Structures are given as structure tokens and as C-alpha cells.
Amino acid sequence: MKQYLEVGKLVNTHGIKGELKLEMWCDGIEYVKQFKTLYLDDKGTKPLTLLSVRPQKNHAIIKFAEITSIDDAEKYKNKIIYGNRDDASIDDDANYIQDLIGCSVVDIESEKCYGKVYDIINHGASDILDIIEDKTHKYIPVIPDIVKDIDVQNGIITIKYMKGLFDED
Questions:
Q1: What Cα–Cα distance (Å) separates residue 29 from each residue in 25, 35, 52, 93, 168?
Q2: Tens digits of per-residue pLDDT, 154-168?
């Protein structure tokens, strides 16, 4: 599992005092507020001290101690920022997307493997597992009737197949 997870992308400057606009790739602003430090790399070697975070439409306005002017902030545009998974908490029944990618999707009854998770998509109703097998994408809604267990430690997502799930029946 990755220790440093993508929180979002710094997409623009905001004002003249070094604030930046963050496109959040996480559950929301409350998650970002848990951090005292964010990082410019996925190894945790380039820290930035988080001073404040506030909402602005679908983004967040973020302020770091190390960035004090618009000229400083310009250098950080289009940079991805990361958080140390140990510095934040998520609900017990939640998982990080990065932990799900690469997991095998296996039938609970036949133990057939349908492929590996390539991505997670969400268009509102529920998350959807985008799995890939032999260059073919299949989509599985993450709902209790279908997804029976998610074991990120062992890299296995167990599902109960339903007729019509893959539109091939």
C-alpha cells in the first residue's frame, strides 16, 4: 500500500498572499483539514506546512507557511500534493482508491477471477469498479447486493455475480 496518497492538484493561485486553489481528489475539505503537513512528492520528502483550508465552489483555497506571495505560489501551479495516510483517518468501512486499484475481483461462489481493478468511477449513485481483463473493461457497482467483501490487505474484492452484470448474458 502506498504511504503517501494523492490529495489533489494545485490548479491556480488565489489572491496575492500565496494562497492556492486546490482541485480535491479526496472526499472533501474535512479530509484535507486533518493534515498539518502535505507533500509535493509521493515519498514524503518535500513537505509543506498547512496553515488553512477553506471551501470555494468545487475547490478549496489552501495556504501553506512556506508560500507567502503570488510569485511564490506561481511555482506550485499544476503540482500534485500528497498526504501521509497516517496523518488522517477515514471511516472504518471506507477504503482509499489507491488501495483498491490492482485488487483482483473474484466470484464468491465459483472463485472465478473477473479481472483487476483499473479505476474507480463515481457518477453519483455509487462507486463503480472499472475492472480490466484481457484489455476489456467491465463495470461493477459497489453495492451490498454485489460487492460482498473488500480485502485490501490481500488484494481481493469478492463479488456475487448477478445475471446481466456484464451485459453479456
A1: 10, 11, 11, 19, 40
A2: 999 999 988 878 765
